[in-house]
Amino acid sequence: MVLDISQYICRDEVISLTQSLVQIPSVNPPGDSPECAEFLMKKLRSEGIETEIVKAPGSCISNVVARLRGRRTGKTLLLNGHIDVVPPGDGWTVDPFSGEISHGNIYGRGTCDMKSGIAAAAAAIIGIHRAGSPFNGEIIFTAVGDEETGSKDGTLHLIDRGIIKGVDFGIVCEPSNLEVDLGNRGCVWMRLTIQGRAAHASRPHMGSSAISYAAKLVSALESLEFKCCNEIFEVTSPSLLVTLIRGGVKVNVVPDKCILEIDRRTLPGEQVETVIEEVSRVIASLCDDNVKTQLEVVKGWDPYVISPEEPVVQALRRSCLSVLGREPKMGGKAGSTDGSHIATKCHIPTAIFGPGNPVLSHTANEHIALEDIFAATIIYSQAAIELLN
Ligand SMILES: [Zn+2]
After folding, report:
1. Distance from residue 114's CA to the centre of ligand 1 (Å)
2. What is the whole-number distance in angstroms between the Cα of residue 148 and the centre of ligand 1?
3. DSSP characters for 116-166?
4. How far is the CA of 84 from the centre of ligand 1 (A)?
5. What's the CA gap between 151 and 156, in Å, rounded?
6. Check whether domain 187-300 has CATH 3.30.70.360, yes or no
7. How many other CB atoms are there within 10 angstroms of residue 311's CB atom?
């Protein structure tokens, strides 16, 4: 069956919900999610939708979990997104928390990444609920407060609590320009501590400079060539970049310590262990006995990709065709999302689909086209009803 959700929720209501979410700053770090989570919970509860706030022990982060049950038992669909946003930074020409509307766009931090996706998913379940929940099974909506700093108190906590269990289909509502992403590249964050020996800078031969060694290492690491390739992804090969460097104490001291942080993006099939071995081999190839190195993995997201034939992908494809009048492109995200955890830890086929151009995420003057938010609302609701009937 096709449900005409626009009979139950209108465009202006979805836009005003987006605006309200943007006007509540939920910046992370430090993790200011409670007010935004409370607002969303109240909105869903006022509609009669079973909603609760879930927190990890000792954490200030709030996650919203809502459940909508259908008429009979059946399969379960998860709609997941995050309410935390990165700090606004400089360069804005509008107030980043105004939710200002201009020329068919709404402006503000999180408009694109990803309060529009949250508003569209919330509006979809509100509309379905108002229509009398014409489906079988359950829709779980999770709006987490910790994604931008690594998901520990957000989606990973919900997984630990067993909230994302027994789910058959997953949709992560991150911005995808209303195209369908079949997965995302993984990510391994590493920290390398280089220990040299201090000396007076007038006698450099008496010490060993951790910075000089780091310079050689950065260039060797960034010269690595990666053979594997996957055409589905926006960035088709793995990548490595040294993204942070910290070292030295004073202009006339041979620096005895330098820290490098390395961002390594992985494709499906690559393992964390092989990535560590690869970096260790580069370190060994420089064979410098005057310095000691220590490599540690700080955080990781697994890469994943699902088949375009998965029912969740096909349901999104058909909904796009009916709402937008076009076939969505099938791709894969260059960066990581909570889809990594949902797909690889819970083994749920998870597509990434949402309103907004991902290139605008985390930028000054972040914005989104109003039309795309309402289109996403209708697409989510149609896909949900198709999957759960
Ligand atoms: Zn995001």
Report:
1. 5
2. 7
3. HHHHHHHHHHHHHHHTT--SSSEEEEEEES-STT-STTTHHHHHHTTSS-S
4. 8
5. 6
6. yes
7. 15
CA distance 244 to 41: 38
The reply to whether domains 5-184+303-387 and 187-300 share a CATH topology is: no
Ligand 1 center–CA 358 separation, angstroms: 9
DSSP state letters, 212-280 = HHHHHHHHHHHT-------TTBSS-S-EEEEEEEEE-S-TTB---EEEEEEEEEE-TT--HHHHHHHHH
Report if pTM > 0.90: yes
- Rounded distance between C-alpha atoms, residue 136 and residue 8, angstroms: 19
Query: pLDDT tens digits, residue range 105-150?
Result: 999 999 999 999 999 999 999 999 999 999 999 999 999 999 998 8
Expressed in angstroms and rounded, the spacing between residue 44 Cα and the centre of ligand 1 is 22
Name the residue ranges covered by the structural domains of the chain: 5-184+303-387, 187-300
pLDDT at 321 over 70: yes
In angstroms, rounded to a whole number, what is the distance separating the alpha carbons of residues 41 and 64?
Answer: 6
pLDDT digits (tens, 9 = 90+) for 276-316: 999 999 999 998 889 999 999 999 999 999 999 999 999 99
Span from the CA of 174 to the centroid of ligand 1 (angstroms): 5
The H-or-E segment that residue 68 falls in is strand 63-69
Distance CA 78, CA 342 (A): 10
- The three-state secondary structure class of 337 is coil
Ligand 1 centroid, distance to 86 Cα (angstroms): 9
Q: Are 118 and 83 in contact (CB under 8 A)?
A: yes
pLDDT tens per residue, range 90-116 = 999 999 999 999 999 999 999 999 999
The answer on pLDDT for 4 being more than 90 is no
Tokens of 237: 């090969």
Q: Which of 202, 201, 204, 215 is nearest to 258 (CA)?
A: 215
Classify 5-184+303-387 by CATH class: alpha beta
Query: Counting beta carbons within 10 angstroms of the beta carbon of residue 91, is it exposed (0 to 12), middle (13 to 18) or buried (19 or more)?
Result: exposed
Q: How far is the CA of 103 from the centre of ligand 1 (A)?
A: 24
